[in-house]
Amino acid sequence: MTETPEAAAPAEEPVDPFLEKGRLLFAGEWKFVTAAPTVDVLPPMQGVEIALVGRSNVGKSSLVNALTGRTALARTSVTPGRTQELIFFRCVPEMMLVDMPGYGFAKAPKDKVDAWVATIRAYLRGRVNLARVFVLIDARHGIKPVDAEILDLLDKAAVSYAIVLTKSDQVKRTDLEAVIADTKDKIRRRPAAFPEVFPTSSHGGKGLAELRAAIARIIDERS
């Protein structure tokens, strides 16, 4: 009787080493550095900076807390536009995390909103150690015209950016896949856009490991 050869075991996919590097990077002791209302009082450029920007109330502060494993490193609020300054956090000398002012439906006087926009533009133009901006987009809505304006600004400033979809746990799987595909299509021809899209959930933890790994890879490349 002829013995049939055993089926070869499926090859295991290699584990991304930056998953562990990202975990270790964000597991350290993160500290608030400063809050800069204007570019005149920015901290000295040291190490690599990673910035988060998004429409007001998109979940930037929640994402900062979730990434760093803290509950109150960044303030969170249901009131749109609470973050009115560039907020700097540091864990290791090689990296600074920057929470940028929200844009869109901020409940503030027009002159103050205009000042925020001017600060953002000045920061993008003059911060040579800014490696990447992660633009947070609500997964329930996708890229809106107000988001496209920020992407235009980043393209003109030639600042590399990537899209992070927040609150993805609040979207059905099929709908989320459609939003991801639509987002990739909309950024495909943008000169400064990184092609990968990161669906995340600050509350459920979805996608946080992958986002940490992406940031760790940036730090490794720039260092």
Automatic annotation (TrEMBL):
One of its GO terms (molecular function) is GTP binding. The keyword Magnesium applies. Keywords: Cell cycle, Cell division, GTP-binding, Magnesium, Metal-binding, Nucleotide-binding, Septation. Residues 46-221 form the EngB-type G domain. CDD domains: YihA_EngB. It holds the Pfam family MMR_HSR1. Its cofactor is Mg(2+). SUPFAM superfamilies: P-loop containing nucleoside triphosphate hydrolases. GO terms for cellular component: cytosol. One of its GO terms (biological process) is division septum assembly. NCBIfam families: GTPase_YsxC (TIGR03598). Necessary for normal cell division and for the maintenance of normal septation. Belongs to the TRAFAC class TrmE-Era-EngA-EngB-Septin-like GTPase superfamily. EngB GTPase family. This is Probable GTP-binding protein EngB. It comes from Azorhizobium caulinodans (strain ATCC 43989 / DSM 5975 / JCM 20966 / LMG 6465 / NBRC 14845 / NCIMB 13405 / ORS 571). The lineage of its organism: Bacteria, Pseudomonadati, Pseudomonadota, Alphaproteobacteria, Hyphomicrobiales.
